[in-house]
Amino acid sequence: MGLMVPFISPDDAIINHRPSSENKEGVPPRISDLKSPPLSARRDSRAQVSKLERTLLSSNDLRTYGFPPGLIRVVTVTNRRQCCQTCIWLDRSAVMSGDAENVNIQTIVRFICFALILSLVPFPALAEDFTNAIHAFLQQRVEVDKVCIGMVVGLVDKDGSRVVSYGQLDNGTDQEMNGDTVFAICSVTKTFTGLLLQDKIERGEMRLDDPVAKYVPQSVRMPTRNGKEITLRQRATHSSGLPRFPDDLNPSRADHPYDDYAAEKFYADLSGYKLTRDPGAEFEYSSVGMGLLGHVIALKAGTNYESLVVDRICRPLKMDSTRITLTPELRSRNATGHNDLGYAVYRVPGCPVSDTGPGVWTNDPKNAEPIPPFSRDWRHEGMVGYGELHSTVNDLLKYVSANLGLTPSSLTPPMENTHAVHFHQTRDIGLGLAWFVTPGLHGTKIISHVGDTLGFSSFVGFDQTRKRGVVILINSYDVAGACAAGISLLESEWQSDRRPQETTIDKKIYESYVGQYQLSPDFALGTLTLWQFLRNAPRALLYVPPGVCLVLLVVLLRRAASFRKRCILLGGVALVTGALAPLTMLTLSHLVCASLHLGIGIRLEGSRMFAQYTLNQRSSPLVTSKLLRILNFRAKFNPSLSTEFWPSIPGELLPESENRFFNRLTGMPVTFLRDRQSKATGLIVRIPGDGFSFAKMTDQPPKAPEPPKQPVAIKIDPKLLDAYVGQYELAPAAAYPTGVKLSIQRQEDHLLGDIRGKNIFGGSIELYPGSETNFFDKIYCAQYAFTKKDNGDATVIIHYWGLDLEAKKLSAPAR
Fold first, then answer.
1. Which domains occur in the chain, in start order?
2. pLDDT tens, 496-525?
3. Are 420 and 432 in contact (CB under 8 A)?
């Protein structure tokens, strides 16, 4: 240790610097306040200190100022705002050693004066450490946006791994989340199933093109179409033609869809299912198919799925916290899941789900046992291969490291084989054995998978080109946020010396940029639109029009009597083509801007600037979906699930200069445009390869995203409850082609709804009154608005996932 002005050692200054807990600006603390950075970061920091010592304070310098050699050292401390503070370190070991006689009152006074003078000398600041930026992002998501209860992020590359976390387990204790917190990893389980399949293939026990019927009991008749059977390859790539969920689920409870789904029923559904397309023809994400794949692999191995995962994957990689069945020790580290509105989901002890009916779920943590929804030890093993595993960030970092070949493992070769593309969902999105394979913004190859269930979200992905991986686990339903953050982290620059450096600018400049900006039509946007259209449009649409034009041109050239006329004809075609090219670009660009109204809003929170992305919700859903599909931005920003063009996560912007800012998390540059009066007129967002211009429309800041509010149940007149009892039916729609039936019954002071239909989790669910006409459920967070006409006809509009579904009352139940 040492004495200094301020009194900290150089290692403390770089690694364990603890600023005042009272921060007037509300700035999140550096991650180094909480834990030491990785070894590589320490080496970088100490190298800079050593450089400063060599350049500023040589031995001769010290003797010139009257200090004995080795007595003092110089370091710099950089806060989040990049204000460099020079620190002079008085080596206590030198004081206590043989040089102690040289240290007297005059030396100490000289030391303090030297510190004061040197503190006025500016030194270049390092860019913010990447883990600090991640920690600030997590704090914003949990404390301000309140879209999740807690998050744990893990990074791994050739320099090692690091974990950043924020939030609590919320399991009845005040435990903070960390790399050993247990989460349900949901559909990331599918990648383990794909690896088990590859392991069987390399052992010579299975083949990718074997029909699934070869491995199921003889009593099961696997569906076929046009003489084509479903193969293991098609099951692992979601191209078998089986549905996402079983058609005939019919559970007792909507929040436990598989509780009544025994193996016999699973086999019966498979035998009776009729394929609507040939196996291998199209992509359709199917949890049923992946559950079936895990089931037949376990049958072939003569054991259960969990034992096979533990034996073949977890033990070799020392993933001791990855299991389906949780031990008491794992339960003590298990995070409680939460739904969209932040309701914690608990299962009441003593209410088994397999033999005596559905478990009872409550939002009261007293005497309740936190268990992730849909997660239990299903004795029939029929569906566990699709999403039943629990794990930790530390365990999954081992898994990712082995996938990348960073950790020597016998599993690395079969893991690499699971990354090979066996089927294409689109031209840019390929399917390995359960993995999604997509191109990155920097020409890299990204392999990833997301998972979600009622209360948990997960992302596991890695950049095979740059050999880096990201793991994100959340104990809330925020799968879109998990995926967007995961892809953003993979695309970001991790090394501090390569990240943009923040500077300090006048607050008035910050305020001048506040407002709303709208995407401007230009050639860059038109070119990107046309390029994405050409990459993803059906071949017939691309080949037929040019082919017809070419035929007409050949006919006209043959009819031209002279060489001069042919030259004039070809010249005219060239001129028309040259004129149509920019016109086409501008037309497409204007079409996108006019229909979607893509925009960016800039707002301030104290002294911090945030950019949030907007999309016109009033435009035609059909036009919007068509344009977004043409643009195919999904492949760039969110490869594993369909989302909008702009990331839904607001990003903090830090200044690199007065005009140039960058996203604090990703480093993406944003350049503001100003006129001669220094008034902001627009901004440019640069994504690798493309630059998008936005014109400033208003100085009015956008409305900050409101945290979700939990509705409060009230008591209403029982007669009003009775008026809503009856049978309702939703007309067939795109999302529900066969329609949905809803049965409403009264249960004490609330209603009980029972939903049945294709493509939904059916079953009963409690509906609580928020007003006399509006009800809500605490599981799926759907809103139910009842209306009653003078003639007695009643309807209910169900607002769920941005959809408004109207159901008309058919009849009242007989009493």
1. 2-126 (no CATH), 152-204+304-491 (3.40.710.10), 507-698 (2.40.128.50), 718-811 (2.40.128.20)
2. 888 889 999 998 999 999 999 988 776 666
3. yes
d(CA 670, CA 432): 35
- Residue 141: how many CA atoms within 13 Å on its side-chain side? 30
DSSP 735: S
Q: What are phi and psi of 685, to 5 degrees?
A: -105, 130
Rounded Cα–Cα distance for residues 386 and 548 (Å): 48
Residue 425 DSSP class: S
β-strand 774-776 against 436-439: which pairing, if any?
unpaired
Give tens-digit pLDDT for 362-384: 444 443 444 433 333 333 456 78
Closest by CA position to 517, among listed 590, 586, 614: 614
Sequence letter at residue 200: K
pLDDT tier for residue 686 given thresholds of 50, 70 and 90: confident
Task: Return the biggest CA–CA distance within the chain.
Answer: 109
pLDDT given at position 421: 94
Supply the DSSP symbol for 69.
T
List, in order, residues 6 or more apart from 377 with CB less than 8 Å away: 306, 324, 325
The answer to whether 665 touches 488, Cβ cutoff 8 Å, is: yes
3-state helix/strand/coil string of 198-239: HHHHHCCCCCCCCEHHHCCCCCCCCCEECCEECEHHHHHCCC
List the strands of the sheet with 430-431, edge to edge. Answer: 160-167, 150-157, 468-474, 456-463, 445-453, 436-439, 430-431, 423-424
Q: Count how many residues are written for the chain.
A: 815
The pLDDT score that the predictor gives to residue 177 is 95
Structure tokens at 100: 């102690």
Distance of CA 391 to the CA centre of its chain: 17
Give the amino acid at 430: G
Residue with tokens 């369909």: 642
Q: Is residue 297 within 8 Å of residue 144, measured between CB atoms?
A: no
Cα–Cα distance measured from residue 591 to residue 588, given in angstroms and rounded to the nearest whole number: 5
Alpha-carbon span 464 to 148, nearest angstrom: 29
Report the first-to-last Cα separation within the chain, whole angstroms. 82
In the numeric block, which tokens belong to residue 399? 């898994």
Q: Which pair of structure tokens corresponds to residue 307?
A: 């034992």
The C-alpha atoms of residue 555 and residue 688 are separated, in whole angstroms, by 44
CA-to-CA dists, residue 258 to 248, 359, 373, 380, angstroms: 11, 12, 11, 11
Helix (H, G, I), strand (E, B) or coil at 651: strand
Report the SS3 class of residue 141. Answer: helix
Reading the block at residue 582, the tokens are: 């920019």
pTM of structure: 0.74
Predicted confidence band of residue 534 (pLDDT cuts 50, 70, 90):
low
List of residues 6+ apart from 445 with CB closer than 8 A: 437, 438, 439, 463, 464, 465
Dist. CA 469–CA 462, nearest whole Å = 4
